[in-house]
Design goal:
This protein has 137 residues and is mostly beta strands. The chain is built from three helices and ten strands. The protein has a single domain, classed as Metal Binding Protein, Guanine Nucleotide Exchange Factor, Chain A (Beta Complex), CATH 2.170.150.70.
Length: 137
């Protein structure tokens, strides 16, 4: 747990794909801080990033229903449900030690608020370091 996390209380949030074949849980605050990126893939999907350390992400079901997609550097692991096509989470290149869940795929019953900050992914090399702290345990 980082110094900034030590004062935070975590809630278990659940989410998944549209058809329900892929389901996961994360531990994160009830008041969420997300980032909406303008890179080519995030912009077209209007992906709202909620990045957590890998140990705070738990795939509950659907590993066999996932397909992955890689492009560009091939480092980011984009996981899509084979049935409905929704990318509800992925491992970002900026945070290989974390998981980015799509905040729009969360069950909002446990969310008290979401504060979203734009992220300039079109200039990824210049800005990626600003996200690195989000996946630290």
């Amino acid at each position: 747990m980082t110094e900034s996390d030590s004062a935070l209380e975590f809630t278990t949030h659940e989410g998944g794909c549209h058809c329900g074949n892929v389901q996961w849980q994360i531990q994160a605050p009830a008041h969420l801080q997300t980032h909406t990126c303008n890179c080519s893939i995030c912009d077209i999907n209007h992906y709202q990033h909620l990045i957590v350390p890998k140990q705070r992400f738990h795939l509950l079901k659907g590993s066999e229903d996932l397909s992955d997609y890689r492009f560009g550097s091939g480092q980011a692991q984009h996981y899509f449900c084979k049935s409905c096509g929704v990318k509800s989470f992925y491992v970002p290149r900026s945070n290989p030690d974390g998981v980015s869940v799509h905040a729009r795929c969360l069950n909002l019953a446990t969310v008290l608020s979401i504060t979203d900050t734009p992220f300039d992914g079109q200039n990824w090399e210049k800005n990626a370091a600003s996200l690195a702290h989000l996946s630290k345990a």
